[in-house]
Amino acid sequence: MRTSFERTAAIIGAVLFASAPALANPQTGDQPNVTVVNPPDQQPQTETVTDNWNAQVFMSGAVLFGATYGASVIAAGTTDRTEDDRLFVPVLGPWLDLNDRGDCPIAEKNCDTETSIKVLLVADGVLQAAGILTMADALIFPSHSHRTVTTVSYKGVNVTPTRVGSTGHGLTLSGHF
């Protein structure tokens, strides 16, 4: 029968494996390049689009934090040890639990299990903190993407690709009518 910490380690491993593609390249821009036939007298303009926050990085941090904190809550709820009740506290819980655990003499057979539990507590604390820091990073440092926008003029009428709302795309028509 598995202990609650073995279940916690399995959950953390599964979530990290599932979120690896999102963590590998979180800052991929989602702005398409607009390609318009360019008259010879006009040069393309490069525009830098800045979002208020980096949603992909934030979601990676939220998944990491949610999975590791969720695993801590499951472990705390399924164990009988009073020290493990500290795991209900986000980020600091694993460190408080680690501090409350006593020393285990090397000669005892139970020390192998206790050492494994302590390693999992450290990993859990580090991963929870990494998730929180990743979410903060996404809010502090917004994403940037570059796109090329070319305005085409035709008999006094300008048609320009334009961003509509936060994710929509449209056209602006201007000129002398």
Descriptive report:
The chain is α+β, with helices and mostly antiparallel strands and 177 residues long. It has a domain at 4-30 and 51-146. It is built from 5 helices and 5 strands. The protein has helices spanning 4-18, 20-24, 55-78, 93-100, 111-140; strands at 45-50, 144-149, 152-154, 157-164, 168-175. The strands form 2 sheets. It has a 3-stranded antiparallel β-sheet with strand order 3-4-5, with no helix packed on it. The chain has a two-stranded antiparallel sheet with strand order 1-2. The radius of gyration is 26 Å and the shape is rod-shaped. The termini are far apart.
Q: What integer is the average pLDDT?
A: 76
Q: Secondary-structure element sequence?
A: HHEHHHEEEE
Fraction of residues in helices? Answer: 40-55%
Biggest sheet features: 3 strands, antiparallel
Strand elements, count: 5
**Low-confidence region ranges:** 21-35
- Radius of gyration, Cα only, in angstroms? 26 Å
Which outline best applies? Answer: rod-shaped
How far apart are the first and last residues' alpha carbons, in Å? 80 Å
Can you count the helices? Answer: 5
Topology readout:
Elements: H1 4-18, H2 20-24, E1 45-50, H3 55-78, H4 93-100, H5 111-140, E2 144-149, E3 152-154, E4 157-164, E5 168-175
Antiparallel strand pairs: 1-2, 3-4, 4-5
Key phrases:
single chain; 177 residues; 5 helices; 18% strand
Question: Summary?
Answer:
The protein has 177 residues and is an alpha+beta fold. The chain is built from 5 helices and 5 strands, in the order H-H-E-H-H-H-E-E-E-E.
